[in-house]
Write the structure tokens for this entry.
Amino acid sequence: MDKLKMHSPNLTEANITKLAELFPSCVTEARDEQGRMKQAIDFDQLRQELSDHIVEGPQERYHLNWPGKREALLAANSPIAKTLRPYQQESVSFEKTKNLFVEGDNLEAIKLLQESYLGKVGMIYIDPPYNTGREFVYDDDFKSTAKEYVSSSLQEDEEGQKLVVNLESNGRFHSDWLSMMYPRLRLSKNLLKEDGVIFISIDDNEYHNLRKLCDEVFGEDNFIACIVWQKRYVSNVTAKWMSDMHDYILVYAKNKSLVSFSSWERSTEQQAAYKNPDIDPRGVWRAQDLSASKPYMAGLYEIVGPTGKVFSPPPNRYWRCNEKQFKKWDDDNRIWWGVNKDARPMLKSFLGESERGITPHTWWDYSFAGHNKEATLELKELFDGNSPFDTPKPVKLLKRLVELAGIENSLIMDFFAGSCSLAHAVMENNAEKGSGNRFLVIQMPEPCNQKSESYKSGFSTVSEIGRERIKRAGNDLVSSSGSEDFGFRYLKVDSTNFKDVFYSPDGFSQDILSNAVDNIKDERGEEDLLFQVFLDWGVDLSLPISRQEIGGKTIFFVDGAEKHMALAACFDLDIDEAFVKQLAEYEPLRVVFRDAGFASDSVKINVEQIFAQKSPSTDVKVI
């Protein structure tokens, strides 16, 4: 009977396996840190395989590089022995909700989610730190703290006084920021569906680097657009040179050829542009220019109007159709010559014949997508006149992005959740449009400044602010719309449920064997074990869970309590054959037991045989 591995996937090993399939001649062996043989790639041979000439050494090439990039890649691929622990009492509608709130470092969280949500996320939105010179809190192993760097680079004297000015402009900030973003973007790409899209908010400080970074991660061909969002409607009078009035939102796809965005609905003002001065029975219309700038030799001709007036295309332009097509339109009363029949010809575009609305564009003004002040007022309305978060995004902006992506009944993710504006937007969009989307947001427990408004309002971490916002916004939406899902399961990134020796068997000694009969930490409960099984087996963390008693044992049934449920788990002790036979009658797709939970070795040996007879399609494992 196989054991679950209980750690995030080793992406380096997976990448080596893929390369070995494509280039078997490049596979070699090497010794690891413990001196054991392992599979490796001969990179010199691989370079030769990918070249049409003899490769003698490193060649100059166009690429983005920075100090720490290799460490960042290693950080992305390295597995971790951690888990997600459920906190039912701090969740909302834990049993029924499909939404998830994960607290912890987002790199660790994304690693843990790799198998459960591989290729399942329809849309990602992130609002990462803008790197304005302040130290960001995502302190990965490969990144020195600001204090360590400043000291080691002689930018402070022994008394802590700065020796250089304008610390924000030194290159370290770019390198550290890129090293923080790189592994998170690489891993998030794995979670996107093939037709999934990612939206990333950014300002001028790192826009140029983020664009290059995304070109590398998602592919330059998968760049869709850069949205310019007007975040302010009043100039900042304290600006030193020019008032910063906008942010950018970079838009990339996993596979652009599969992406289609929704058209925008016409506003009242846009619909008012359609009129019917000639009482055309086909309804209201608006006039379109008949000329075009693209060279079209068949569009070089003269048009004679109803009054005999002759019209040629404007200079350096062409009629957008040939003469034959123009005559068809004119005969069908689709050409507008003006009230007096002597104006330049225009094509009538009927509102009733329009198959789509307005084509989305990249300039989003504040009236269309909200602004920063609006976002602050939204928080104040929820939090009794206080604004516990400094830089929220307006719900209106994020609803526009959800509507643009045009996804329904899909998973929407934000791994820099902040005040959880995205979760709020998803719930509002579901309430208004019935879209049926669900959210997965990740936020680390970043401490609030003790002098801040948030701390004075009773919040010690940003994560607390986000969870409280979802609760309050959900309560408001429940009262106005009713039956939508406004809850969330609250999970925390934590150390593994298993004792350390489970991961380092070489650490055993004879005197501690008696204490290692059970490999599970004493303080961990059954729900903790269940969610680690979810992660290891790639089960959706939001599936419904029912807890039942069978034969005096506690059983967790996942995604149904009848036959063929997704998973059945029992972590009780003294499991006997009679109980196993009862459980096999349910024919679950997967079943898991505690390794030390069987009444005897013979029971453990017979478990697979019992399921082979009664439920041959069941995958049986132990932890």
